[in-house]
Specification:
This protein has about 350 residues and is of the alpha+beta class. The protein folds into two domains: about 1-30 and about 195-355; about 35-190, no CATH class. The protein is built from nine helices and nine strands.
């Protein structure tokens, strides 16, 4: 009797956890992580910056609310936007201020990405460069700025956000450990902001009958997405982003429907492997957008994948005990049906958004 009386409370808690975790994503693309990027070339005293930023993340730019930025809207706001960028993003040299900053060109990419070409000129040859970004203060709190600095072929990468607002890059300095740290962190953050991947994992976990069956399914998923993540990052196999994201949504819907129809097959790890191949292409979009240097591509790929796995394991360790406990109560089936229905609804929304509205 005591266990039965506790079950409604357990069901409520579990449903709340899953609803909060999944519905947070219903208004945006799961892979559309708020980010900007800069590709910096250091040549003597000159620091050339190719800077890109999503204007949709800035209030007051899309004045007609149609989801795209026209050239008229850009022209009307460029002075304010450029002023904000100079206020919240900069490059500097220890002990030396830039003698001159020139905005050489600006334009639009894909109707909403601001593309700036800036030139910083310093009094002396630049061998150490500090990049600072507080763009999260004017964009979204989880905004990330991806940086690539090229000292004449000596290429370094970094990720700046609210927890790490500046980074110093030095010509000739070993940066392997810093790259490892930055991309492991990026992989972890990508999992915990990739709501569709979390929905997919929840759909697999909610019907797991044992820890062993869960490990089998997750291992299959990990191996598969690692394969396509590597293939896509090295430009060996590339799928259109719209197709990849739409197929990811369909894979989530499939898992949810299978849960609703009844106990899944004992060989579910096989279909999970197929879906894992698709999700790997989704993971790869983050690294491919950064246009990483070939010299550090392998390390960046390994570090990012390690971060993805750390985030995935952390999520599983958080959720599976709740699922295992619920499995011992009469409320397992209602919880499974409720959570799977939510997942199916989100998957349908994501598919329509990605296939027809993107």
């Amino acid at each position: 009797m005591e266990q039965a009386s506790a079950c409604p409370h357990l069901a409520g808690r579990l449903s709340a956890v899953f609803v909060l975790a999944l519905t947070a994503a219903s208004s945006a693309f799961s892979h559309d992580m708020p980010r900007s990027e800069s590709r910096i070339r250091v040549r003597g005293r000159d620091v050339q910056v190719a800077f890109q930023l999503n204007l949709r993340d800035l209030a007051g730019i899309d004045t007609n609310g149609d989801g795209s930025i026209s050239y008229d809207e850009l022209e009307n706001s460029i002075d304010r936007v450029y002023g904000l960028i100079k206020q919240h993003w900069s490059v500097s040299v220890p002990g030396s201020a830039p003698a001159k900053l020139t905005l050489r060109r600006y334009g639009l990419v894909e109707d909403h990405i601001l593309d700036l070409d800036m030139l910083y000129t310093f009094p002396d040859e630049v061998t150490s460069l500090r990049v600072t970004s507080t763009l999260h203060q004017i964009m979204q709190p989880v905004h990330q700025h991806l940086v690539t600095v090229d000292f004449g072929g000596d290429v370094h990468e970094g990720v700046l956000d609210a927890t790490a607002t500046s980074f110093t890059f030095k010509s000739g300095a070993g940066s392997s450990w810093k790259i490892l740290q930055a991309f492991v962190k990026l992989g972890i953050e990508h999992i915990f902001t990739g709501y569709d991947h979390l929905a997919f994992l929840v759909g697999l976990l909610i019907v797991a009958t044992s820890f062993g069956s869960m490990v089998k399914v997750i291992t299959s998923f990990t191996i598969a997405h690692s394969i396509t993540l590597a293939l896509a990052t090295f430009d060996l196999v590339i799928l259109p982003t719209r197709l990849t994201e739409s197929m990811i949504a369909l894979s989530i819907a499939y898992v949810a429907i299978e849960n609703l129809l009844g106990p899944p097959s004992a060989n579910r790890y096989r279909i999970t492997f197929v879906f894992g191949l698709i999700h790997g292409f989704g993971f790869s979009n983050v690294l491919r957008e950064m246009q990483l240097s070939r010299s550090h591509l392998a390390l960046s790929l390994f570090s990012f994948n390690a971060g993805v796995e750390i985030g995935q394991v952390a999520f599983l360790l958080l959720v599976f005990p709740l699922v295992a406990y619920a499995a011992k109560t009469p409320w397992r089936k209602p919880i499974t049906l409720a959570v799977s229905s939510i997942i199916l609804g989100l998957a349908a929304f994501w598919f329509v958004q990605r296939a027809f509205l993107a």
